[in-house]
Design goal:
Blueprint lengths: L6 H24 L6 H14 L3 E2 L11 E5 L2 E3 L13 E10 L2 E10 L5 H19 L7 H14 L3 E2 L5 E3 L6 E5 L16 E4 L2 E3 L5 E3 L6 E3 L5 E3 L2 E4 L5 E2 L4
Bound molecules: magnesium ion.
Magnesium ion (MG) binds next to loops.
């Protein structure tokens, strides 16, 4: 069941989204060769708590950190730890914040120092696929118009779309209906309307689409070991779409 939000709830989600975006951009700016993913996680947690938010990933189904830190061939749900970033890596930072009972959820993939041209292209295309999906979040469109727009941008550039993980509705819960695949034909699924708030999050691989989960039960990695990128915004359906996690 899709929970529609009243205008006053969307204003609360705007506050949650704004803090979520601030943390994302703060942590992204800390990324440099030599820093560990644990240091990034600790910085994120401090930043959130100092501003009155709750890091929603921490303890979620037992997840041990406030951010997911996914390096190179890790697609999503990487657990922060002692891994030090190296020049040429890419790192996906995914994080969620609760403010006053409402969630924000966002992700970005950033380069560590100077990266290969193909890796930069993967980042650019994944961000563009997110924005193409967001542009479809207008009343009267169908859910899969978002999915199709994401897929088109990614596949036209020769990259593949992860199919095992999807975007989601968001509100009082981090994960609400509907699920939002990043692929598929247009014009399918529920018709979008005002009051829907969606976390749109393409996960795009440089190589094949296949992924697997490591023995830690969390870390999702590409089977071929090639890099993967992840960008996410929390968006209220509107004309134009209302990006709650914009910078
Ligand atoms: Mg999400």
């Amino acid at each position: 069941m899709i929970v529609l939000k009243a205008d006053w709830e969307i204003e609360k989600m705007r506050q949650a989204g704004a803090l979520t975006a601030k943390v994302r951009d703060y942590v992204a700016a800390l990324v440099r060769p030599g820093i560990t993913t644990r240091e990034l996680d600790e910085a994120a947690r401090r930043f959130i708590e100092e501003r009155g938010g709750i890091p929603s990933f921490l303890g979620y189904e037992g997840f041990p950190a406030s951010i997911c830190a996914s390096v190179n061939g890790v697609v999503v749900h990487g657990i922060p730890g002692e891994q030090a970033l190296r020049e040429g890596d890419i790192i996906s930072l995914d994080l969620g914040v609760v403010v006053d009972g409402y969630h924000g959820d966002t992700a970005i993939t950033v380069p560590v120092g100077k990266i290969a041209q193909r890796a930069q292209q993967l980042l650019d295309v994944t961000r563009a696929s997110l924005l193409a999906g967001v542009a479809q979040a207008v009343p009267g469109n169908h859910l899969s118009d978002i999915s199709h727009a994401v897929e088109r941008v990614a596949t036209e550039a020769g990259f593949s779309v992860v199919v095992d993980f999807v975007g989601h509705g968001i509100g009082r819960e981090m994960h609400e209906d509907p699920q939002i695949p990043n692929y598929g034909p247009p014009g399918r699924g529920v018709q979008l309307r005002r009051g829907m708030v969606l976390a749109i999050e393409p996960m795009i691989n440089m190589g094949g689409a296949d992924v697997r989960i490591r023995g830690d039960g969390w870390t999702v990695e590409t089977v071929d070991g090639l890099p993967s990128a992840h960008f996410e915004h929390t968006v209220a359906v509107g004309d134009p779409p209302d990006v709650l996690t914009a910078p």
